Protein 1
Amino acid sequence: MMKTAPAPVPLSPAVFAVLLALGDGDKHGYAIMKQAHTPEGGNVKMGPGTLYGTLDRLIRDGMVEETGMTDDERRRYYRLKARGRTALAAELDRLNVAITSARASGLLAHGGRS
Amino acid sequence: MSRTAPHADEPNRLVSLYAMAVRLYPGPFREAYGTSLKQTFRDSLDDRTLSRRTLIPLVLRDLATSLVKEHLIMLRDTFGRPALIFNALVLAGLATVLALALNTIPQQVLRLGANDPQIALADDLTVKLQQGIAATDAITPASIDIARSLTPFVIAYDDQGHPLASQARLDGAIPAPPSGVFDYVRQHGQDRLSWQPVRGTEHGVRIAAVVERVMPVGSAPGGFVLAGRNMREVEAREHLVGQLATLAWLAMLGLIFVATAVFGWITRPRGLQSMVKAG
């Protein structure tokens, strides 16, 4: 029997893309933005204003923090906190369930991309 | 000899323009992220995989949406604090109660004061009728059009409520209050009421009326006296009081709104939470 996890609140595309970009390591603002633009990063076209607004809210919610490290005093690096990692995992699970279901219904080809 | 590319200064110009646009963000956001915003824009310009044709519209769209969003968030953080809203609502509630009192109390005083001449007239006529004076002799002849005149008037009725003598006319006839009024006065001795005599299908005239019971004494038959007065002027004053109370209410709400906005601005959160966390 499948264990049913409580349904996570869907994340906004920008929040999802930022968390996903930070999921594989610390990044500075432009690196997050660039990864978000890629299909693997969620294909979310966001500019600097949206990026830092989203980062601010994520920092406020305890999902992301600044690393304090920098390769340039104008570049700040960010990393996921445990709470952000949990939220990202929950969102990925939610999407995974939806994609599995779509494949089972024939709405999405096996191994294909929508 | 050195050659300068035709658009060599373009990145600097774009960065300068973007830096000017960054100044449009709310202060705390700009202080926290202004440098990062500009650096990220510079990084975008330096990225040769991202064409200007893609970047510039993206940044313009982003500026338009994120400026609005950050200002709305700043407004929410400044003025949407529960304590601030609660205080404003309590003050607005108090202002509403005060305005209702300013409306109701003077109107009641005006309405009650409108009965004073009628009380004296009704008492005097009742005494005369109970002394056995005939209604037609006790009442000074007059023909007061109660729809127009503000003069107080009296009417005497017999014990069944039929008019005996009257100074008042409404559309040429002697007006009579509903029979329920006489039943009430028969039991309680007196009634003070706002009376709207029927005029065809209209009820346009309002009368401040005092109705008293005339007790049968000796040969003097029982009956009723009604003293009344058109309420037009009193109602005009009541209307004025209502308007003044409404103006006072709106002024109080406006003052509360302005004071709340000023207080909210003075006590607004300084800087973003992320700045605190970043130390």
Note: Chain A touches chain B at residues 29-30, 33-34, 45-53, 55-56, 59-60, 65-66, 72, 74-76 (CB under 8 Å).
Protein 2
Amino acid sequence: MSTALAEMPHRNSAFRPVSVARSRNLKKSYGEVVALRDLNLEIYAGELLALLGPNGAGKTTLVRMLLGLARPDSGSVSVLGSDPHLGHVQARVGAMLQVGRVPETLKVREHIDLFSSYYPAPLPIAETLKIAGIEDIQERPYGELSGGQKQRVLFGIALCGNPDLLFLDEPTVGLDVEARRLMWAQIRTLIGRGKTVLLTTHYLNEADALADRILVLDKGAIVAEGTPAEIKARAMGKQIRCTSRLALEEVRQIPGVLSVKADRNAFELQVNAAEPVVRELLQRDSWLGDLEVTNAGLEEAFLALTQNHNADASKEMN
Amino acid sequence: MAATTFSATLAVTRRSPARTIALFYKEAKYELLKNVRIPVYAISTVAFPLMFYVLFGIVLGSGNPANRNEGAVYMLATMGCFGVMAVSLFGFGVSLAIERGQGWLQVKRASPMPITAYFFAKLFSAVVFSTVIMLLLLAVGTTFGGVRLPLTTAARLVGILVAGSIPFSSMGLAIGYFAKPNSAPAVVNLIYLPMAFCSGLWIPLFMLPHGLRVFANVLPPYHMSQLALNVVGMGIAPASTWQHVEGLLSFTLVCLGLAAWGYWRDEGKMYG
């Protein structure tokens, strides 16, 4: 962690990084399920830190603890130098959470008006509506909004108090490409205003587009940390698709194959580097056909990242 | 730059008293607006007691010309009690269960909203709905049921029943902390409909079997409706006003205790 810290591309690089939130040896289990194992994290003033990880990696649990909504089994959390559940900390923190149902009969403007009243020095309502991009839907009831519009209202709720530190838990989950781009632009606006943001996502391209620094979380532990460029380089696996007479098990044994699955009459292989595997495949099966090599999708990129980290477990998992 | 932003905002982390009042006002206003705009809530909580009142209090009583308005007066008190109960249990209990179970309360708890504002708003909404129900019942009873109550009596009746929002909201609070969002409406219906019947809200207690009459003593709507009936001189034992107040008070305390347990159980998973 300390090496990445030294190289951290900091927007305010003229200043020594100021830590605004940290967790130390954080542990949390829900019954048998371990959500976080010994997690250490530091958030610096002015940065956008992305927590990248698949579903169930522990991202939401971590955010809930940083917000004072969940108590760790052991370890400690400190936000703005205090316990996160204290009022004077909450007054300077904004949160966009994943929520099952929001009161549907209240209008957009009314939601913002109400949440603004919770904070000691909120933004003017008109400004919140503008930054969140919900000016033209301010008179509509929440229940009548599209998915993207709903997310923007929750985003408005997170920023209306003019907080210094924002936690955005999967702000673009379930959004289409256009709505996602719009949300990205709005998050960048926040960064432009000097806010510190912790964002969770399971999209590598989202973390890449927004973050100064990325932490990759898997099964409750940080498995990789670095700049977006570094993380991308490590995550960029390849996908090979081909028809073959080889047995699935034999293909799986080829060195460099992370995973393989049969898809209709073809095999789909996830690999780190395509060339050695293709060479091996061609050598073993002269009937090999329909060969396609593509960049791995994001899900596959995760696989590469998390399995590089923990190669033993990956064999059993796939 | 970041460092200056952080120190500059430290000065304004306390809410001024004026802002605190504005906060409570807005929380209450929007809670009420939210409920008024939910047709199922607004219509059913207001329409059901009115409908029952018209059917049982006015239509049924009109066949007995000797004391035609007796039933209309009796039912004014008991259906008022029924209405207040429904408003509190649904407005407090079901809505808390839903907002708690589906993550909305978490969003609010992540903000600096004082939890007292949240509870105050729900109680306020219950009080407003209860008042509206009582006034409508009075209007219907006076216009169609031949009810003639002196203004002070009417005011006392409305006042006592609206105050009933407090014990029933406490009950709602307890239910809200233990029921799941999907089952909360069913739980409330299963509790309050039989409870209302056994308390003599539809059929006067003296017409019910002896066992039920004894059982009624532990039911809050019984005490509440007896207090209201005492106002119009129709209580079973007008002298026992304090007994009813005591009954309601202990019931309220039990509910608040349960709610506090539920609250801390939640907060045990969370912080304060």
Note: Chain B touches chain A through 39 residues (CB under 8 Å).
